[in-house]
Design goal:
Blueprint: E1 2-6, H1 15-20, E2 25-30, H2 43-51, E3 55-60, H3 72-89, E4 96-100, H4 107-128, E5 137-142, H5 144-153, E6 159-162, E7 179-182, E8 199-203
Helix pairs in contact: 3-4, 4-5
């Protein structure tokens, strides 16, 4: 079992402390539309995380909090933006990018627009890979029902990350997670025990994390989609 955190805060200054405190990995964000300056991972921060001996894990998130966000076109756009960011950071081929469903989606949403969204992600990443020279595995974050449908039933995601929101549909009984998020129980390396600052996580075995970067002078094979204001 590996212990980790997920946070929308820059962890550069805390990376060594986190390692000494028994933290094994840190989930950090790619985002195109965020207005939170520290949410978006930078190359300097990625290097600091890895130099400290932590595993870096990647999640892409703009605003997936209502069903209106989700569509095949939005999935293609988010995957394109994630792919381009991964190239600029030097994310190694074969590691994972997680995509989030950050609300308690009912079955009709999951089997409809959310499935369409993840199919769009899959399609765009296949196009961007240019025949397989650079590929990224797909992870899904959300409720137990979302994780089960996108990972097990549709087999689009290789990895699932169960949200800390245990009251969401299927979350109490979902057991096939690769990463399990929980509300923090104590202050940690300058982060207060507040989900607005960080969350605790546990991971079982491989979850698509990164242990080294692979800088490459390669342009993305598809163009970024339009950005939200």
């Amino acid at each position: 079992m590996k212990n980790g955190i997920s946070t929308n805060q820059n962890v550069t200054a805390a990376a060594s402390c986190l390692k000494q405190a028994g933290i094994d990995f840190a989930f950090r964000y790619y985002s195109t539309t965020t207005t939170q300056p520290d949410k978006r991972l930078t190359l300097a921060e990625a290097n600091a995380i890895l130099v400290a001996g932590l595993i870096l894990a990647i999640v892409y998130e703009d605003g997936p909090t209502t069903v209106s966000y989700f569509s095949n076109a939005r999935g293609q756009q988010d995957a394109t933006n994630a792919f381009n960011t991964a190239l600029s950071i030097g994310q190694p081929s074969g590691s994972a990018i997680y995509f989030t469903v950050d609300y308690d989606a009912p079955p009709a949403d999951i089997s409809g627009p959310i499935l369409d969204y993840f199919q769009g992600i899959q399609q765009a990443l296949q196009v961007a890979s240019g025949g397989g020279s650079i590929t990224f595995d797909i992870g899904v974050y959300g409720s137990g029902d979302v994780c089960a449908f996108i990972k097990q039933q549709s087999a689009i995601a290789k990895y699932s990350w169960l949200s800390e929101s245990t009251g969401w549909s299927g979350s109490k009984t979902y057991a096939d997670w690769d990463v399990n998020q929980a509300v923090p129980t104590s202050d940690l390396c300058g982060f207060t025990a507040d989900p607005q600052e960080y969350d605790e996580n546990q991971a079982l075995g491989d979850f698509g994390g990164i242990t080294s970067l692979n800088p490459r002078p390669i342009q993305a094979s598809i163009e970024s989609g339009d950005q939200e204001p």
